[in-house]
Amino acid sequence: MLRPQETSSRERVGLNGLWAFALDPGDRGRAEQWWRGPLPDAVEMPVPASFNDVPATRDAHDHVGDVWYQREVRIPAGWAGRRVVLRFDAAAHRAVVWWNDVEVGRHEGGYTPFECDVTEHARPGEIGRLTVVVDNRLEPSTIPPGIVDVLPDGRRRQRYFHDFFNYAGLHRAVWLCATPRSYVRDITVTTEVAGADARVHYRVDVVAGQVAEVVLRDADGAERARGTTAAGTLEVPDATLWRPGHGHLYRLEVRTSGDDADDYALPVGIRDVKVEGDRFLINGEPFYFRGFGKHEDNPVRGKGHDDVHMVHDFALLDWIGANSFRTSHYPYAEEVLEYADRHGIVVIDETPAVGLNFEIAHTLVPGDPPHIWAAIDDTTQAAHLRAIQELVARDKNHPSVVMWSIANEPDSARPEARTYFEPLVRAARAADPSRPVCFAQVQLPPDKDVMSDLFDVICLNRYNGWYIDTGDLVTAERELEAELREWVRLHGKPIIVTEYGADAIAGVRSVAAGTWTEDYQIELLETFHRVFDRVDSVIGEHVWNFADFATGYGVNRADGNKKGVFTRDRRPKAAAFALRRRWHPKED
User: Fold this and answer.
1) Which domain holds residue 225?
2) Residue 165 within a domain
3) Any domain includes 271
4) For residues 437 and 388, what is the distance between their CA atoms, to the nearest angstrom?
5) End position of a domain, from candidates 179, 194, 222
6) Contact criterion met (CB below 8 Å) for 331 and 339
7) pLDDT exceeds cutoff 60 at 352
8) Is 543 helix (H, G, I), strand (E, B) or coil?
9) What angle do CA 39, 45, 50 make, to 5 degrees?
10) Active site residue 416
11) Which of 529, 534, 513, 407 is closest to 470 using CA atoms?
């Protein structure tokens, strides 16, 4: 699915702003058909944003179930005879859309886009009523999973098995778009580096038309290669490569034939990615990942995308010396990947499959959740497969994305895990053979894990000195090194430590470097770094986390997770300066 853009044949109208909004704690709206008129007792809600923290009420913050959005939309008069679609960049976690009284689309999955074709219902020049119901419930059959408890007084309580708050709503942009009736539906590009030259392999999917020309242009607009078929290879002599720290982009221009021609321009970065032995290669050069697991999380906005926050976060990544991050634990807004493309930041792109491990979650949520493989079934696996396919379909053309992570911290110790994941790994490779596939492994010893051999890179989340051997960094260093060397012996693959860190409350210091202090956070990071430097197969370090973030309720979380090296409002802790000294050694 192509991103909306404006070209000589395409137009788009942004629908962001203030919408009418209503909570629906009793699920009355569907039964009473709220889409047929103005929403009852509506307030105003900004889009994009998570709805939870905006009204400043406990009811909104803790709401479980449906919420309703509505606004009026005028179709431009000049769009007569054109294809008209609504595009939602994200609706967490499932949505149904009506144009006036007609249902025009539905989607499950809170972090990938969907379109609703309203060509036959929207009249150019007239105003229509757009209504969306968004359901934030997580169940064992959803990705991510959860459990909804109904309390004796009728209220619902959501239990979920991940350590970040279940923000929901219309998190990303909403668009009204027009294309010709004959249009470019999709473009797939892969690139291949051959010495100083390169090849750009492309495939164009056109609805009711034919490709007239495909032109590859350099950043200055100069033509570098041309094709006239729907699929082919463009030879690019003396190519300028996309590489870490240098986000050089070409532009692939596609135009269809006929009086109702469509055109679309796709940014293209030429680079290749390979795993050889225990090395990760970008353009044939070994790459070492320095960076973070992050979250889309900010005060008030929650997971709502904001360009200001995005640009500032990238500025902090540059300041600290990071070259990469993982989209933990869901696909981020496409604007984030486009920015990474332009600036040469490397991305591990992750599905929303977090929390497939109820035993670990038992420490995070109240109650007694069932064992994961007793609750997860074929329906869950099908949802997981859709999440992988939609992630690849959306992000396959981003040069910044160098690897797919298909899950975070699943229970990978039981035979059921291998049975569940093996077809998903095959599906990920089939969807995109050009990138390695990984998952982030929870703190299990290598001899207990039953599925890491299926993947290209060993990604480990490790909390020695924090959750294990708390406060004892001598033991943590010894045990961590021994474990990493055992992973090398068993698999001989590259290792990225995709999470490591400790909670630190900003401003709490101690000469004894006690736990929860900024001093202990630094000492733990430095302990890990000594081990990384001694184990050659370690090819990456992603600190958990870039910034403090909101979590659900729990006695072990005071105002959220405090493992960030920046506070939630992006003030640096002492650990940020320690990382800058490691990652920017020549500047300090």
Assistant:
1) 183-261
2) yes
3) no
4) 11
5) 179
6) no
7) yes
8) strand
9) 120
10) no
11) 513
Residue 281 falls inside a structural domain: no
SS3 564: coil
Other beta carbons within 10 Å of 158: 20
Residue 175's DSSP bridge partners are 14, 87
Which amino acid type is present at position 365?
A: V
Choose, from 334, 499, 518, 541, the residue flagged as catalytic: 499
The pLDDT, as a whole number, for residue 259 is 86
Element (H, E) at 19: strand 17-24
The CATH number of the domain holding residue 337 is 3.20.20.80
Catalytic residue among 11, 390, 409, 479: 409
Helix (H, G, I), strand (E, B) or coil at 60: helix
Q: In the structure, what pLDDT confidence band is assigned to residue 564 with cuts at 50, 70 and 90?
A: very high
Instruction: Tell me how many degrees the CA angle 504-505-509 measures, rounded to the nearest 5.
Output: 85
Distance CA 371, CA 334 (A): 35
Give SS3 for 179. strand
Query: Considering all CA atoms of the chain, what is the largest pairwise distance in Å, rounded to the nearest integer?
Result: 76
541 is annotated as an active-site residue: no
Residue 24, both tokens? 């629906």
Task: Identify whether residues 304 and 376 lie together within a single domain.
Answer: yes
**Smallest Cα–Cα separation from 93: which of 287, 355, 338?**
355
Which H/E stretch holds residue 293? Answer: strand 289-293
**Domain co-membership, 320 together with 351:** yes
Cβ atoms within 10 Å, residue 120: 9
Q: Report pLDDT digits (tens) over 495-547.
A: 999 999 999 999 999 999 999 999 999 999 999 999 999 999 999 999 999 99
What CA–CA distance (Å, rounded) separates 366 from 119?
48
**Side chain identity at residue 8, one-letter code:** S
Output helix, strand, coil percentages for the chain, rounded to the nearest 5.
20, 35, 45
Whether the Cβ atoms of residue 228 and residue 264 lie closer than 8 Å to each other: no
In a domain, 277, yes or no: no
- The CA distance from 544 to 542, in Å, is 6
Q: Clarify whether residues 144 and 213 are in a common domain.
A: no
Q: Do 78 and 153 belong to one domain?
A: yes
Domain count, the chain: 3
Tokens coding 191: 């690139």
With a cut of 60, say whether residue 371 has pLDDT above it.
no
Ranges of beta strands (E only) in 426-553 are 437-441, 458-461, 495-499, 538-544
CA distances from 192 to 241, 280, 337, 439, 525 (A): 10, 16, 21, 25, 37
Helices then strands, counting H and E runs in the chain, come out as: 11, 30
d(CA 418, CA 359): 17
CA dist., res. 577 & res. 321, Å (int):
10
Closest CA to 301 of 48, 523, 103, 519: 48
- In angstroms, the CA 187 to CA 393 distance is 10
Are 73 and 98 in contact by the 8 Å Cβ rule? The answer is no
Query: How many Å apart are CA 463 and CA 440, to the nearest integer?
Result: 13
CA dihedral of 2, 303, 411, 557, whole degrees rounded to 10: 170
The pLDDT > 70 percentage for the chain reads 97
Summarize the confidence of residues 203-230 as an average pLDDT.
95
Closest C-alpha among 331, 133, 341, 313 to residue 246: 341
Q: How many CA within 13 A on the CB side of residue 512?
A: 5
3-state secondary structure 228-283: CCCEEEEEECCCCCCECCECCCEEEEEEECCCCCCEEEEEECCCCEEEECCEEEEC
